[in-house]
Amino acid sequence: IPLMVEAFEMTSLYDVPSRLFKATTEAYLRMGRSEAYKLIGSLDVIGSPLGALNRISMGLRDFAMIPWQNLALDDTPGAFWVGVYKGTTSLFLQVSSAMFVTITKLINGVSYGITVCTLDRDYIRQKIRRRRQHPHHALAGVVQGAEELGFGLASGMKGVVMHPYKGGRRSGLSGAAIGVGK
User: Fold this and answer.
1) 132 or 65, greater pLDDT
2) Looking at residues 149-167, what average pLDDT do you find?
3) Contact indicator for 94, 62 with CB cutoff of 8 Å
4) Do the beta carbons of residue 132 and residue 144 sit within 8 Å?
5) Dmax of the chain from CA atoms?
6) Which residues have CB under 8 Å from 95's CB, separation 6+?
7) CB 5 within 8 A of CB 35
8) Confidence of residue 49 (pLDDT cuts 50, 70, 90)
9) pTM attached to this predicted model
10) Distance CA 47, CA 103 (A)
């Protein structure tokens, strides 16, 4: 979603630099505040609510418009009902898409936060690399989700054993205790 910033024009450039700076800063801050809802609304961490609203509004538009468009193109009574079916289908698909995309983005945000909290550089690198792989269809997405679950469980089990072991070898009992914390 693009942020729009208008041009800022000053008529008097023969002023004290501090006033010029203040006027410029205030103008751009005012414009930024008026556009901030777009930035906040498109954050993936909160599920990108503007994206969900766009999808839902497209579905509502189709629900309201397609029956009448069909009737305008074909004046038989069946055309209107075919339009109602198509509009209802579009509304259902758009609302479902908005819901699933929002839930997915929320889960990804939480997952990323948990990943960073592990403080394990290798694990973070692996998760980022794996996150860049996108499935091409639904079945591939299910398979990838199952693989990620397995990867997370295996990595967690390995970490429970290996971090205390490595810490203990490096620094003795205190290193093992630090490894348990990891």
Assistant:
1) 65
2) 77
3) yes
4) no
5) 85
6) 55, 56, 59
7) yes
8) confident
9) 0.53
10) 7
- Other C-beta atoms within 10 Å of 41: how many? 17
Q: What value does the CA radius of gyration of the chain take, rounded to a whole number of Å? A: 27
Give the tokens for residue 96: 């479902």
- Spatial neighbors of 82 by CB under 8 A, at least 6 apart, are 70
Give start and end residues of each alpha helix (H) in 42-76: 49-73
Contact 13, 21 (CB under 8 A): no
Give CA separation, 113 vs 7, 45, 119, 148, in Å: 38, 10, 11, 16
* pLDDT, tens digit, 9 for 90 and up, residues 10-42: 777 677 777 777 888 888 778 777 776 666 655
Contact 124, 116 (CB under 8 A): yes
Q: What is the pLDDT of the chain when averaged over all its residues?
A: 78
Give dist(CA 115, CA 127) in Å, integer. 8
SS3 content of the chain, % helix, strand, coil (to 5): 80, 0, 20
CB 71 within 8 A of CB 83: yes
Query: What is the predicted pLDDT for the residue at 2?
Result: 58
Neighbours of 87 (CB within 10 A): 22
